[in-house]
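Sequence only, no structure available. Ideas?
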Amino acid sequence: MLLVKLYVEQMVVRKEHPERGRLPDSIPDLFLSYLNTLNANRQPEDPDDYTVRQSAKTIAWESLRQQYHPIAVREDLLRAALEKSGNPSEMLRYLTEKLQILQRTEGLLEFLQFSLDPVAEFLAALHLVEHNGENEEAWENLFQNLQPSRDGARGFLLALHDCCIAKRTEYNLPVSIPLKVAALTG
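Reply:
I predicted one. C-alpha cells follow.
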C-alpha cells in the first residue's frame, strides 16, 4: 500500500508541477523521488536534493548494517557517519524536524530511527549498490554476513534485489549479484 500511495502522490505532484520531470520508473527511483518531493519547499539555506538523498542513504545503511532491518541508532553515531556532509547535526535536525523521515525514539531521545521501515530499507539498499558497485569482494562479504540473519532481513533483501535490478547498468553490477540476492530472498 505504501508504494501505491507514494506513486499516486508522485502523479499528483507531476500533474501540479510538470517541470519536475517524468514519473519514476522503478521502485528505488520512487523512494528517491519521494525524498525530492519532501525537500521541494526547501529554503535557500537548506540542503539540496542530492545532499538530502546521500545523507538519508548513509543514515539508512547505519540503521540496517548490524541486523539488516531498521533499528534506532544513537545520534552521535549518525553524526559521525555524516561527517562528510559538512554539518551533520544540522542535517539530522533537518531530516528529523523539517522532512520528518527520522524520528526520536520514545524514552531514548538520543536515538533516531526512520519513520517508515521501507524507506530505510530501500535507501540502505541504494547505498550498498552505489558503494559496492562492481566490487565482487564487497558483495561477497555482505552475502557472508547476511547468511546468519537472513530471516530478519527479508524486507531489506527484497529492496536490495529491486535496487540491483534497477541500477545494475548504472553501477556496473556483475550479473551474478542480483541472482545471489534473489537466491537469498527465497
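The beta strands are 73-74, 102-105, 108-114.
Hope that gets you unstuck.
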